[in-house]
Amino acid sequence: EVLLVASGGGSVQAGGSLRLSCAASGYIYNNCVLGWFRQAPGKEREGVANIERDGTTSYADSVKGRFTISKDNAKNTLYLQMNSLKPEDTAMYYCAADEWTLVTGTPNYWGQGTQVIVSS
């Protein structure tokens, strides 16, 4: 059973925007903290943004003010709106979920990655 399906990556120039989507199963959407991670070549995976069950959001310092995480209850879908993209945002982006927390960086559920490339 596929529980998280990510989409929306692509190639953009610096300063551009992309919106990532992640369709979640009903169980995950209703019972988990949802979030996005990314991993650039040669770098460690890092948390980008989280959204709690009550809608509380948190962001990595590197994306604050540029990225917005949200979710659509009618569609069981998680989003990441990315504006003012920089070349350093280039990475594989993964949606993830956990019944408890994403802070540990080891969530129980992972979506497949979607590639984001930002050219200067």
Task: Give a structural overview.
It is globular, with a radius of gyration of 13 Å. By secondary structure, it is mainly β. Strands 2, 4, 5, 6, 9, 10 and 11 form a 7-stranded mixed sheet that branches. It has a 4-stranded antiparallel sheet with strand order 1-3-8-7. It has one helix at 26-31, and strands spanning 4-7, 10-13, 18-24, 33-39, 46-51, 57-59, 67-72, 77-82, 91-98, 109-110, 114-119. It has 1 helix and 11 strands.
In short:
The protein has 120 residues and is mainly beta.
Fraction of residues in helices? under 10%
How many alpha or pi helices?
1
**What is the CA-CA span between the terminal residues?**
39 Å
* Count of beta strands: 11
Radius of gyration: 13 Å
Give the H and E element order.
Answer: EEEHEEEEEEEE
List the helices and strands and how they pair.
Layout: E1 4-7, E2 10-13, E3 18-24, H1 26-31, E4 33-39, E5 46-51, E6 57-59, E7 67-72, E8 77-82, E9 91-98, E10 109-110, E11 114-119
Spell out the key features of this protein.
120 residues; four-stranded antiparallel β-sheet; 11 strands; seven-stranded mixed β-sheet; mainly beta; single chain
